[in-house]
DNA sequence: ACGTAATCGAGACGGTACGTCAGGTCTTTGT
DNA sequence: ACAAAGACCTGACGTACCGTCTCGATTACGT
């Protein structure tokens, strides 16, 4: 028996949803956030640019952050499928990955929406949870898997907490990106990997 | 010779400023951000709570972020005066400091405004610059000074880039705080210090 | 030769029309206008109450006023069949009729929809025309016929313009109903008839 | 002791009201209702035409009907000051007045807003009351006063209920105007007066 | 001691965007 | 083929704040 005091929230029928409108909305959101930033992004502007009624946005998304989230993170990609390269050389592999991350963070097209979403998590915990679960954790877990392989290959001290090890790698990059204190470069990525890994080498027994 | 097309921006006379109003505004801003978060913080609400006209806020601050910034970071503290402890034991000293940082980040009173300001830097570069310059860099420079002392004492490899070394310490903490992936604990701070420092010990030549 | 630029207006096939739906719609409209008034009457609400798709209403009626009109004025009654009583005593007959009119206007069930339709004629001239032609004029013509009979019977001055005579009778009632200035009573109807008829008695030549 | 559950409705300070805005709003409302009718009259359109924020309308008027009401009925006219002419000849005086009324009702500038306001009273009883009290009743009372003078002068039967007598005069005009059945002319006004007054002449005792 | 000039509380103003609602059209899915 | 259902685009609603402006009423100097 359901609660009679709160009538059903009228969930719309997803099977009748217009894919044309959905795509137009997501594209418009990405365009607009690139042009003017998240603060000036409004639902009305998205609707106008997409040639869509506002209600069509409110029907399917709870906030402009949710729209942007879906625009940035296309659903349907399997989180478990994310895998770091494994050439057998943990240091080289991590440098490859962190250099790619640096390139992504320096990409102007990705920078604006990513910063916007990250910032919005401060006001919107629900968004934060979604972002962590759908995007961040899958990537971090890939790091953990790669580090575990290195551990098993004897390249990393077996006593190390891999979760913290990973944070030693990505934390510094994230910190520089977030604070804009100094530029993010490949050389920086390399140095972080070298320094972090030096502390993880197996101790001579 | 000044531009005649733009009349003087009417800088108000700071000497006549009402300290009562200033304090009331800052206090009201802090209260409100604690109660409802930054998103629901409005200039009108601050003015109403402080018993102040809106213009009194607009006269002295350019944005609600600037108000909050001043509320959180009382001016008049000398950035150069920030100093990390130096007992001679770099590991112990860093653990002391990072534990204190963990405590601060876990303090509910500081959490909301700090997150709000951090998030707002994504939309307000001017605020970001101020935060970096007045708050962040002074602290980071204190780390650099303490690490340099350790280097000179032979506890840290002289080849290490201290700026990056510092980021290996604070980056992980900042990352956890920002992403809320796992709890921030003293044990975590200790492990980060241990792991980071292991990579910085002088190499046996 | 038809205009090729305007395609046929797609007149639906009336023979396949669902009588069930038609009745449900008309009943729902009457119910709703009684419950909440014309202003809050919406096509959506009628459709929902009638268990009918909105399109089924739009297919057959041009506006909510048209629905209400058909609900109030069942088609198929012969306008010429309306007849005032004729006992030979014009004063008594008019009092009978105006008292009945007063009763109708005081009937709460009829009041709301009638007022709504009357008011809507200000915005919807088409509706006004329909109302006049189908409802109002047939009744007024009945008055004219009855007054003419009285004229021929020597009870009314032959020089009188009967159209205006009739308006002297119904105008005051309509005015009071519309303006709600004073209550509509049988006594009022009687006085109006007495007063109006006094001016119409054949002059002593 | 006042009700603590309902905070004061924040009545705005009338002394600071902008007369410029007020006039612009009333003018815009009159223009728009003349152009497109009351149904298509929107607060947004009024605000746009008047070059005014919507809130400035909502601050001072409860509905678009109230705006139109004030636009049509400039406040500050003393209801008691309305007086019908008194040349001593009641028939001639009434014809003068009703002819003027006919002219007003045929004036296109007054027609649209007057019809709109009249129609709106069906949905908005508060408006109806205001209209009756501020506009209608003062005029009707003037009729009553003039008829009473005629009564005292021996031109009207002392037994007549003057309130009903007045309705016999204005009711027919109102009815024709409202139903648009036949044109409103001076000749019509004259005939109504003649017919109605014939029934009011003093009976030969 | 007194003008006078600036700040102050207050809040009306022209605006922008909000999130909701209803209108009327179009499309999909039975029956 | 028509009816139900309901998603869609449109546009107005009434509200919340924005940042600017104007209004007396305090202040706090500089004569």
UniProtKB/TrEMBL annotation, chains A, B, C, D:
One Pfam family matching this protein: TetR_C_11
Annotated InterPro entries: Homeodomain-like_sf, HTH-type_TetR-like_transc_reg, HTH_TetR, Tet_transcr_reg_TetR-rel_C_sf, TetR_C
Gene3D superfamilies (alphabetical): Homeodomain-like, Tetracycline Repressor, domain 2
Residue ranges flagged as DNA-binding region: 42-61
Domain of life, source organism: Bacteria
Domain HTH tetR-type: from-to ranges: 19-79
Keywords: DNA-binding, Transcription, Transcription regulation
Gene Ontology MF annotations: DNA-binding transcription factor activity; transcription cis-regulatory region binding
PANTHER family: HTH-TYPE TRANSCRIPTIONAL REGULATOR RUTR, TETR-FAMILY TRANSCRIPTIONAL REGULATOR
Stated name of the protein: TetR family transcriptional regulator
